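Researcher: Go.
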Amino acid sequence: MLPGVYKARKKDGTIYYRSSITYSGKHISLGSFPTEQKASKAYQIADSLLRKNELSLEDYRKQRDLLSFSKWVSLVNFRDNGMYIKTPIYLEKRFFHYYFSIDDYLTFDIDDLFYYSTRTISRRGGHLFVADYGMQVNILSRYGIKNFAVADRDYRFVNGNNKDFRYENIEIINRFHGVQKKEKNSQQYYETKIHINGDYIVGRYQTEIEAAIAYNKAASILITKGYEKEYPVNFIEEFNTKEYRTLYKDIRISQKIMDLPARN
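Model: Structure:
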């Protein structure tokens, strides 16, 4: 067999060829191929990539049919940084890039390296997910951003780059469901809305916590009246149970909500 190539057989008896390479004591699988020649070519490309510093991620544009781009990134990073990572990550000094293609990548803080080196990021409906303990988890949840959050209303990317997920670049504007930070005449306040048949204004409050509790109170009243919508609960970590109950009792909400008729 040619260097780096191993013959294998599928369950149905079909023969195929696997390719692998050993570099700095690390045995790396390069993939499966229909012919010995293609498997050997993949080995030769990987060998050149690991031993020639002049080859970069950009050079992937010249070959697209043997090594996957993900594998290309892993090999270049291993050569340049001495760490083999199975996911398509390239390390910089204090951050790293997670690549989907040469021109399409996300940036993360180095503190997130272990998490993303063991999880593959997937896209669905414009959202980014990882498989975490059998569940699909939106990566925004790592920053305390809720599933209902809207970019530029509830959170924003400080430098305008929505692919830069470094912690310093993500600002949380609104933490709680139904609460929106607003400003009028240079004065900031928090407005709470709740959806019934359209949005109802629950009230306007001086603090975010008051606004979040007002949402909870309005939701509780609506549920008591027979409105069967599943209203999420805002969890308030800042208060103990007694403090929360006191504020909950004292918080005022729109009379329109109080006067809504009960549903049978």
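Model: The chain has a mean pLDDT of 93.
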